[in-house]
């Protein structure tokens, strides 16, 4: 098994005919993902990459039965695209778009609260269940099907960790990139819970960073309810206070959201915290023995 | 993006927030003119001169002074404009004061006691709601209040569907101990402040202090705004408020090349694709015995041009004793990045600090070969651990 996506997921691409959408939809299809079409307002009725294009998400859902959507629209249209997908009844919305205003995401979160959609992201690499489906922009070939779940706020740093795991023979059940923004749909804890409940996941890697308290929240839950070994890394041990480190959400606001504070609490909660990002894979191999 | 106090106050005033009035001045003569004009408009007899720099704690550093006559205005302005203002937020070098705000004196005697409060609006990341944070302990550093009197800080979460509601504004005003006219003024102040916060897509509005004057008016005496960079596309008028003098020149240059750069104080420069990996690379440098000199995310592409621009920015800093380039090739191929590094290196010529290039991912081996065969003084690595050891060797 895996969580969130597998070979049965029917995936729509919002922003399908744009440059990013076209490029990554192609790679997703190549990976074996069941992409069933896309949405670009004004281009409905045409075909793109051999698949139908629709004007609205609800039309696309009606025609294809899609249950998953991946969003590549520019940031100024990001919030609208997410809400359109939710309104059309899409169960899993993966927003890759980087740069959506925080105020827009506050509205989105409120909108989603009364609907049955799960949002992953925005500003994330997406989700991959290796060997089954890839809904996102991560390089497929570094992954390998297996039993480690990965939850991360970052893109390339996740690839780094996955690459270490794969080279040690540790495949992945599902890797979830939850996104680097201050307001996101699925928290570290939400993702951890999914993986704890997954029969095929034997160990979990949490890659966090400075800012917010999501990793702490997850750690406290794991202490009480965790049933699988967890390896954790927090990026930004050397980041100065009050400066945004690339990600909109990676900013130290107080004493509680520094890397050191998070690592200390995670350690106390029984998570195997590594100081060096070079040791994520190795540590997981050790604790699984 | 950050803006100055005088710009923040303009935004507040446009949204109906009562402020301590003031006029910005770039020279002592302008300061005197501003003082005269303010006297005419507000009736103020004394003036407060405030250095306009992007840093808090200006009062303690000598950046806020009271002038009791026009001669004092001129004298204080002469000393303040051009000074290096050092506060706990500027670092030891301080910031050059290029302009001052000449403001009316709002601490005049009157029938009631003056009072100072703290109020800010910001995002509560946990709930995803905008939140008003306030305290009766105004005028002092809010972090100090949080440490010493955490029970004196209150929060009011704003429902995204409804915005701030009247009962919330009343609750805040009651909690601040207000009554009568001051109470009414405070509820108006809160509504206007939230309107200002929303209208510019701020990520933080902080008013410290909010003053209850001796004649029961509620005024914003200081104002700090942080604007959400992601929302600036819908506020072209705010982009004009950007003051490049207040920003690190290297960071301004980096932004011109679409590079995400943060200057730090260390001795090992780094260039990385992706923000998370960039932070992790800084951490590796520290664990290897160095100190990161910067944060630099070159984004997904890492072409020869971006590598060249990035290397230039890093090598501008004389403190840099080594450079670590760390690229994880996913979509981008490592051999292409390697060629970019070699090209940029040759173009820049005289690089006299060791450069370590770590390429991992698509075509990593081919990338390493390109670096090793280039004949340049560049060390190559494939795993992160190898790169860490190379950093250890050179620092």
**Through-space gap between termini of chain B:** 35 Å
**Mean pLDDT level of chain B:** 93
Strand content of chain B: 15-25%
Question: What is the name of the CATH topology of the largest domain in chain B?
Answer: D-amino Acid Aminotransferase, Chain A, domain 1
Q: Tell me the count of domains of chain B.
A: 3
> How helix-rich are the residues of chain B, as a percent range?
25-40%
CATH class of the largest domain in chain B: Alpha Beta
Distance between the termini of chain A: 22 Å
* General form of chain A: globular
- The CATH superfamily of the largest domain in chain B is identified as ATP-grasp fold, B domain
Taken in chain order, the helices and strands of chain A follow as: EHEEEHEHEHEEEEHEHEHEHEH
Keywords (chain A): Ligase, Nucleotide-binding, Tricarboxylic acid cycle
Active site (chain A): 247
Family (chain A): Belongs to the succinate/malate CoA ligase alpha subunit family.
Protein name (chain A): Succinate--CoA ligase [ADP-forming] subunit alpha
Key attributes of the depicted protein:
heterodimer, A: 289 residues, alpha/beta, seven-stranded mixed sheet, 9 helices, 14 strands, B: 395 residues, D-amino Acid Aminotransferase, Chain A, domain 1, Rossmann fold, six-stranded antiparallel sheet, 13 helices, elongated, magnesium (chain B), magnesium ion binding (chain B), succinate-CoA ligase (GDP-forming) activity (chain B)
Task: Describe what you observe in this structure.
The complex is a heterodimer of chains A (289) and B (395). With 289 residues, chain A is an alpha/beta fold. Chain A contains 9 helices and 14 strands. Chain B is an alpha+beta fold. Chain B has 3 domains: 1-18 and 109-246, ATP-grasp fold, B domain (D-amino Acid Aminotransferase, Chain A, domain 1, 2-Layer Sandwich), CATH 3.30.470; 21-105, Dna Ligase, domain 1, CATH 3.30.1490.20; 248-394, Succinyl-CoA synthetase domains (Rossmann fold, 3-Layer(aba) Sandwich). Helices cover 37% and strands 24% of the residues of chain B. In chain B, helix 10 crosses helix 11. Chain B starts with a helix and ends with a helix. Chains A and B meet through helix 4 and helix 5 of A and helix 9 and helix 13 of B.
């Amino acid at each position: 098994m895996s969580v969130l996506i597998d070979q049965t997921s029917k995936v729509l691409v919002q922003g399908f005919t744009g440059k990013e959408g076209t490029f990554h939809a192609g790679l997703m299809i190549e990976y074996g993902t069941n992409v069933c079409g896309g949405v670009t307002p004004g281009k409905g009725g045409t075909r793109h990459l051999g698949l139908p294009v629709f004007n609205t998400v609800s039309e696309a859902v009606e025609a294809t039965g899609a249950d998953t959507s991946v969003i590549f629209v520019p940031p100024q249209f990001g919030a609208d695209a997410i809400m359109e997908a939710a309104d059309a009844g899409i169960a899993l919305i993966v927003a890759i778009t980087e740069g959506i205003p925080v105020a827009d995401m506050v509205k989105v979160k409120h909108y989603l609260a009364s609907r049955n959609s799960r949002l992953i992201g925005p500003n994330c690499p997406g989700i991959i269940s290796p060997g089954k489906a890839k809904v996102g922009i991560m390089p497929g070939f570094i992954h390998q099907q297996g039993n480690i779940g990965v939850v991360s706020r970052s893109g390339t740093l996740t690839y780094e960790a996955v690459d270490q795991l794969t080279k040690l023979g540790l495949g992945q059940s599902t890797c979830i990139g939850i996104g680097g923004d201050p307001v996101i749909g699925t928290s570290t804890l939400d993702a951890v819970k999914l993986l704890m409940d997954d029969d095929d996941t034997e160990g979990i890697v949490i890659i966090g960073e400075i800012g917010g308290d999501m990793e702490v929240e997850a750690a406290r839950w794991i202490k009480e309810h965790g049933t699988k070994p967890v390896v954790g890394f927090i990026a930004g041990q050397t980041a100065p206070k009050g400066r945004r480190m690339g990600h909109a959400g990676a900013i130290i606001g107080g004493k509680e959201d520094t890397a050191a504070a998070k690592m200390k609490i995670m350690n106390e909660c029984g998570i195997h915290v590594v100081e060096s990002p070079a040791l994520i894979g190795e540590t997981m191999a050790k604790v699984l023995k | 993006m950050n803006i100055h106090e005088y710009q923040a106050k303009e935004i507040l005033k446009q949204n109906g927030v009562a402020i301590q009035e003031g006029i910005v001045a770039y020279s002592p003569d302008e300061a005197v003119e501003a003082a005269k004009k303010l006297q005419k408009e507000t009736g103020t007899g004394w003036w407060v001169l405030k250095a306009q720099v992007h840093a808090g704690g200006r009062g303690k550093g000598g950046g806020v002074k009271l002038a009791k006559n026009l001669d004092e205005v001129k004298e204080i302005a002469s000393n303040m404009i051009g000074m290096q203002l050092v506060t706990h937020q500027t670092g030891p070098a301080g910031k050059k004061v290029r302009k001052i705000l000449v403001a009316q004196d709002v601490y005049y005697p009157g029938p009631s006691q003056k009072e100072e409060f703290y109020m800010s609006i910001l995002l509560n990341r946990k709930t995803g709601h905008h939140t008003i944070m306030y305290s009766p302990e105004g005028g002092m550093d809010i972090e100090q209040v949080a440490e010493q009197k955490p029970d004196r800080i209150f929060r009011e979460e704003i429902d995204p569907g409804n915005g701030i509601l009247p009962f919330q504004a009343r609750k805040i005003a009651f909690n601040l101990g207000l009554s009568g006219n001051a109470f009414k003024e405070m509820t108006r102040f809160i509504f206007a402040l939230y309107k200002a916060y929303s209208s510019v897509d701020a990520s933080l509005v902080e008013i410290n202090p909010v003053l209850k004057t001796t004649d029961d008016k509620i005024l914003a005496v200081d104002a700090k705004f942080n604007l959400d960079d992601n929302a600036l596309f819908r506020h072209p008028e705010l982009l004009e408020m950007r003051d490049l003098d207040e920003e690190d020149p290297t960071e301004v240059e980096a932004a011109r090349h679409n590079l995400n750069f943060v200057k730090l104080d260390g001795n090992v420069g780094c260039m990385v694709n992706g923000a998370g990996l960039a932070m992790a690379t800084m951490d590796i440098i520290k664990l290897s015995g160095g100190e990161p000199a910067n944060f630099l995310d070159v984004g997904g592409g890492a072409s020869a041009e971006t590598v060249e621009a990035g290397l230039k920015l890093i090598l501008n800093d004389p403190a840099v004793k080594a450079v670590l380039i760390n690229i994880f090739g996913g979509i981008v191929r490592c051999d292409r990045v390697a060629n970019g590094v070699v090209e940029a290196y040759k173009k820049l010529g005289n690089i006299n600090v060791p450069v370590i290039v770590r390429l991992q991912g698509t075509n990593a081996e081919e990338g390493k070969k390109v670096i090793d065969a280039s004949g340049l003084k560049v060390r190559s690595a494939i795993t992160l651990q190898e790169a860490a050891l190379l950093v250890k060797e050179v620092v």
